[in-house]
Write a structure and sequence with these properties.
The complex is a heterodimer. Chain A is an alpha+beta fold. Chain A is 51% helix and 20% strand. Chain A is elongated, with a radius of gyration of 34 Å. Chain B has a single domain, classed as 3-Layer(aba) Sandwich (Rossmann fold). In chain B, 28% of the residues lie in helices and 29% in strands. A six-stranded mixed beta sheet of chain B has the order 6-7-8-3-9-10, sandwiched between helices. In chain B, strands 2-1-4-5 form a four-stranded antiparallel beta sheet, covered by helices on one side. The mean pLDDT of chain B is 91. The chains are: A alpha+beta, B alpha/beta.
Chain lengths: 791, 236
């Protein structure tokens, strides 16, 4: 049947524009599938392997201090497989230039191997418990080392217990709990210049923090099949004498939670986007094949008459769809692998995870199977009418196309006012229901993808504006090592260039309500503070109550607490015994990341049975004096961290470039999808109506008027697509956000009016571009040839 | 019969280049088409009769020679001028009707009426062609003869000076064909339009004022009929 292959090849060649447009849509679908599946498989595998290799903890317990030996006691509890007891504490770092950074000083019992949350050495060597030349050795996370231009063998200076302690950097290492290394949820993105992970041996940490033989954190890996709830409860009971500050499972561990949410959203996208593209490609193929079969009806009849079997003819037409799939799968896989390399690199800038790389033959194989299935399904469904073609009948001329009343004709008042050209377009669109449906659906998909892409940009914009222009208005936020009297800030307020100082206290707490417990932070703001403002879910600023508490939305939801409820607050400061108070819920605030509860500074002090202590302050300064003030603040040893709002904004902005690239690619792909849909739809309509168009030219219509008829056809289908695309896009954005939201962060779907306008404009752009591409042949339409043509 | 010349052809030729073959479809042709006459162009397939019709109708351009309509040189006209010429002065009737399938009988005629400033009444024209009762039918719901009647109505609603008919009875049965010819003569009588009928059916020659016989791309003979026969009286 090689002659049929020749016919296939000629068919492809004569419809090369449509073939290329459809292959392009498949290419995009497959490339997205390959790129995203490869990247998220790599990320997932790398995460799994890294967790396994380093015994990533199932549960975390924080205490004020407990004897080291408590680890052994916990190891004896049935259901516990591994335990590591260690010290972890955030410390201030004094950099070489005198500026401040902060570090999460994490200690490790030696030998490291087999410990829970062990580390993987990247550079240099492991630290020693007792270095030959004295002092303490540390491993740093590679991002901090690189961002601060440090070299192995150099020293970093930390402040612990009011003392400056030098640590010698002997290597870099990464650990499973620091894959996404941010200080807390309010940081949004890693800032390795000002926050690092410093790793030292446990014995050195005990010396640095003056905790001989003591630990403040216990990490546990459960045995398979353990009754986790019961085991956790036993461990909490065992630790209660030591000031049980916090206890949470792996899913609430900061780095893990963020990586997991990235994986979840990525896996959703890896299915969602390719499905849209492949479904639309399949739909266009079906209508194209049906049209081809209608046009080649007599040829099919001749083939059948000659004795070619139904199956062979069916396969011949299916081959057209399969050829499109083959081209799409091949180019899509190559492009997908190239994209996945870029995506892997993008993730490498965010995640400290080894071996995020690789080529998965299985994914390539699936991509071919996927493309072939799309081709086969479209081919079989499109070619099905072949079976019913009777050789004798097929050689007779087909009756002229039937036209029926469309919905607009039920309104004669309006219908009568339409020109015959508009009537032609409306009837043609109504007659070709399947094609109209696919075109409208395709435009809806393209416009909604555009809106989602623009929404991603809006989301970042909203986040930045809400957080840095409404909630946080300070220039600097200073946190002290320990609670201090508010009068201690006098020295800061006297610094030259400091215009305003507002004090606050942050108290880690456990909130109890109706048998439920949630760990949170209470932020006590001094009366009249204006530099940090909570916002409600409607986006309105909230006043800090003198008494009672504003609960964070996520905490309120977890507790099931509402305004007016009385909740129990237990302080979990790692100094002193926990204090328990009852507070009334005054209102509920929405925080983009994590949860913060607000109250007045005096109320917060009452929680601690104190009168006038604070843990930090916020400053407004003369912009010209920023550097000098930062330098002067860095000299104050009691200060744990200095956060510059501007530096945070700059850091986030610099990291957003790569995300914008992704948004740009999505916009480009949506554009191609829209273009391919419109182009194919017009070409099909044009080919079917050539004779009628030629008749119009013969009657005396100009080329412009005939071309206008095609534009009317296009707009009747595309404009509803544009309009429906906007709410669909919004709905998809809501669906996407709800599927990636976690306990730790959620996000309101706010789409700017500009994004709607841009989606419409880009949509209109691809409609007009597709129309222009498809109607170029109109000027060469042969009136004479067409006047003789018999359907 | 009025003597004013509407269309003048002088040494008109038409050649088509089809790949490596050059086909001389029309050789040095001279012809005047007169206002108000019924001209029948007869000839076998490939004799050049349709080529001649297409050139007269402004659907195609001459390869050499001069073609003018009322002193307007069509051989020099731009595409826009040819479109305006077709729009304002020409009505076409084709063998396969070439109606717009998505428009009803009424709308097909109305479509053409929208092209000119002073069209005939669509209703009257449809009544004249005998389709008053089937205005809301689509082409697919009409017989061949009825479709050809709409095609004629569509052509004449613009008040064309020349009605060009390419094998207007070619796809119709004997009786229907005759009724269509009758209708064409009626249009000529009522509106004074020049009617040019291209056909291979020699019997139809009798209904014209003049008969142009074509052979191998040339006008072999121009015959002037002493009187126009009624379509009822001719046989084929």
């Amino acid at each position: 049947m090689y002659v049929l292959y020749r016919k296939l090849w000629r068919g492809i060649w004569s419809n090369k524009g449509q073939f290329f447009a459809m292959a392009l849509v498949i290419t995009i679908g497959i490339s997205l599938y390959v790129a995203m599946s490869t990247t998220y498989s790599n990320l997932g595998y790398a995460q799994e392997r890294f967790y396994d290799d380093n015994n990533f903890a199932d549960h975390y317990f924080y205490v004020v201090r407990a004897p080291e030996g408590v680890g052994k006691q916990i190891a004896g509890i049935p259901g516990v497989e591994k335990v590591t007891a260690r010290i972890q504490q955030d410390v201030a770092v004094i950099k070489e230039d005198g500026s401040r950074a902060s570090a999460r000083l994490t200690s490790y019992p030696l030998p490291l191997s087999g410990q829970v949350n062990s580390v993987a050495l990247k550079q240099g060597r492991l630290f020693e418990a007792y270095p030959a030349n004295g002092g303490a050795e540390a491993l740093l996370d590679p991002a901090y080392l690189e961002a601060n231009g440090l070299n192995l063998g150099e020293q970093v200076e930390i402040i612990a217990e009011g003392r400056q302690v030098p640590l010698t950097v002997v290597g870099t290492a990464i650990g499973p709990e620091f894959i996404y290394a941010i200080k807390d949820l309010s940081s949004m993105v890693p800032d390795p210049k000002t926050f690092g992970i410093f790793m030292i041996p446990l014995n050195q940490a005990q010396e640095v923090f003056n905790l001989p033989g003591q630990v403040n954190q216990i990490l546990v890996v459960f045995a398979p099949g353990a009754d986790i709830e019961a085991v956790v409860s036993q461990i909490e009971d065992l630790l209660s004498p030591y000031g049980n500050l916090a206890s949470y499972p792996r899913k609430n561990q900061l780095s893990h939670s963020l990586l997991d949410s990235e994986l979840t959203s990525g896996r959703i996208m890896a299915k969602f986007f390719p499905i849209i593209f492949l479904a639309i490609a399949a739909s266009i193929q079906i209508i194209l094949l049906r049209r081809m079969i209608r046009m080649q009806r007599s040829q099919i009849g001749i083939m059948k008459g000659l004795g070619v079997s139904n199956a062979a003819v069916l396969f011949h037409y299916c081959s057209y769809a399969l050829a499109i799939s083959a081209v799409g799968a091949l180019t899509g896989s190559i492009l997908g692998l190239l994209f996945s390399r870029s995506l892997n690199q993008l993730y490498a800038t965010y995640f400290n995870l080894p071996n995020v790389e690789g080529f998965h033959f299985q994914i390539i194989m699936y991509s071919f199977i996927l493309a072939a299935s799309v081709g086969m399904a479209a081919g079989l469904s499109g070619s099905a009418p072949i079976v019913n073609i009777n050789p004798a009948e097929s050689m007779r001329a087909q009756p002229p196309g039937k036209s029926t009343q469309n919905i607009l004709e039920r309104f004669p008042f309006w219908w009568r006012r339409l020109s015959p050209l508009w009537k032609m377009s409306f009837r043609s669109v109504a007659r070709n229901r399947m094609r109209t449906l696919v075109t409208v659906g395709g435009v809806v998909a393209a416009v909604s993808l555009l809106l989602i892409s623009f929404f991603m940009n809006d989301a970042i914009d909203y986040m930045m504006k809400q957080y840095y222009q409404k909630e946080m208005l300070y220039h600097y936020q200073v946190r002290f090592d320990q609670p201090v009297l508010s009068s201690e800030t006098l020295a800061i307020s006297r610094l030259d260039g400091v215009n305003s100082v507002e004090t606050f206290i942050e108290i880690p707490v456990k909130i109890h309500f109706k048998g439920r417990n949630v760990e949170d932070v209470v932020n006590g703001q001094a009366q009249g503070n204006q530099l940090k403002t909570p916002f409600d879910s409607e986006g309105n600023p909230m006043a800090i109550p003198e008494e009672g508490i504003i609960l964070g939305e996520i905490t309120a939801r977890k507790l099931g607490a509402e305004v007016g409820d009385l909740i129990t607050v237990e302080t979990t400061f790692n100094r002193g015994a926990p204090m328990i108070s009852e507070l009334s819920v005054v209102s509920i605030n929405r925080q983009l990341f994590g949860s913060v509860c607000y109250t007045s500074l005096s109320q917060a002090n009452r929680l601690l049975h104190e009168a006038d202590v604070i843990t930090g302050c916020m400053l407004l300064v003369d912009p010209g004096r920023s550097a000098a003030i930062e330098a002067q603040l860095s000299e104050i040893t009691g200060i744990n961290s200095i956060t510059s709002r501007q530096k945070e904004i700059d850091n986030i902005t610099s990291l957003m470039g790569s995300s914008m690239l992704f948004v740009g690619i999505m916009i480009f792909f949506s554009l191609i999808l829209g273009l391919a849909i419109i182009y194919n739809s017009i070409v099909m309509s044009y080919n079917e109506r050539k004779k009628e168009l030629a008749s119009l030219l013969t009657l005396g219509f100009t080329h412009g008027e005939v071309s206008g008829l095609m534009l009317k056809d296009t707009l009747i289908q595309a404009v509803p697509g544009l309009i429906i695309g906007l709410p669909t896009g919004r709905w998809l954005a809501v669906f996407y956000i709800s599927s990636v939201s976690t306990d730790m962060f959620t996000f309101p779907v706010i789409i700017s009016p500009l994004s709607y306008v841009l989606s419409l404009l880009v949509g209109l752009g691809f409609i007009l571009a597709g129309y222009w591409l498809a109607t170029r042949g109109l000027s060469s339409l042969d009136m004479i040839e067409m006047s003789k043509y018999v359907d | 019969m009025a003597e004013a010349v509407l269309v003048h052809l002088q040494d008109v030729t038409k050649t088509y280049v089809m790949g490596e073959v050059t086909v001389e479809a029309l050789k040095a042709t001279n012809l005047d088409i007169l206002a108000g006459e019924v001209l029948v162009i007869l000839g076998p397939s490939g004799s050049g009769k349709s080529t001649l019709l297409n050139l007269i109708g402004g659907m195609d351009r001459v390869s050499s020679g001069e073609l003018s309509f009322r002193q307007q040189a069509l051989h020099l006209a731009s595409n826009n001028q040819l479109t305006a010429y077709r729009r304002d002065h020409i009505g076409f009737v084709f063998q396969f009707y070439n109606l717009i399938s998505d428009l009803t009988a009424w709308e097909n005629v109305e479509l053409a009426a929208t092209l000119v400033d002073n069209p005939l009444s669509t209703a009257e024209v449809l009544e004249q062609v005998g389709l008053k009762e089937r205005l809301d039918h689509f082409p697919a719901q009409l017989s061949g003869g009825e479709q050809q009647r709409i095609s004629i109505a569509r052509a004449i609603v613009k008040r064309p000076l020349i009605l060009l008919c390419d094998e207007p009875t070619g796809a119709l049965d004997y009786q229907t064909g005759k009724s269509i010819l009758e209708l064409l003569l009626d249009v000529n009588r009522r509106h004074g339009s020049t009617v040019v009928i291209v056909t291979h059916n020699a019997a139809i020659g009798a209904i014209g004022d003049r008969v142009v016989r074509m052979s191998s791309g040339r006008i072999a003979e121009i015959q002037v009929n002493a009187y126009r026969a009624s379509p009822e009286g001719i046989e084929w």
